[in-house]
Design goal:
alpha+beta, disordered N terminus
């Protein structure tokens, strides 16, 4: 079933149009993984959550980063492996680009649709998958 996205169910930190930088650790923490490894993490996360992993931002140029948005303050509870960068209370003054739900947001986009207010990636599940993926040798 498709649910129409309105300004009532999109978090207030998501811009109405274009892109905005948001300070990590305020509205969300983020875990960033590069390129195909980020896509592999997302694939496994989506499988484990029946296709609704929570808010994930993808960059389609440059490093092709994938940003997994988790509840604010939760990133400090985990020892993230090399290759997973933590944005939140474990780091200072780091910003994450947040795209609008629709329209021209190049080079960022919501990978599994824009978030619903209060929705985040499950940090326990993300940590488990990231650790498993980043500890594998590259293919």
């Amino acid at each position: 079933m498709l649910v129409a996205m309105t300004s009532n169910n999109v978090p207030d930190w998501v811009p109405a149009s274009g892109l905005r930088l948001r300070l990590a650790g305020i509205h969300f923490d983020a875990v960033r993984v590069r390129g195909v490894r980020g896509e592999a993490v997302l694939h496994h996360l989506a499988d484990a959550t029946d296709g609704r992993p929570g808010p994930v931002v993808r960059e389609v140029s440059g490093g092709r980063w994938t940003y997994f948005l988790i509840p604010p303050g939760s990133s400090k509870e985990y020892d993230w492996p090399p290759g997973a960068a933590c944005f939140g209370p474990c780091a200072r003054d780091q910003y994450v680009g947040i795209p609008a739900p629709h329209g021209n947001t190049y080079p960022l986009s919501w990978r599994c649709g824009p978030p619903v207010a209060g929705e985040f990636v499950d940090p326990d599940l993300l940590h488990e998958i990231v650790t498993a993926q980043l500890c594998l040798p590259p293919t």
